[in-house]
Amino acid sequence: MPKDLAIAMLEIDEGLKLKPYRCTAGKLTIGYGRNLEDRGITIAEAEYLLQNDVECFHAQLSKFPAFAKLNEARQAVLINMAFNLGVDGLRNF
Question: Angle, nearest 10°, between helix axes 72-91 and 43-61?
Answer without folding.
Answer: 80
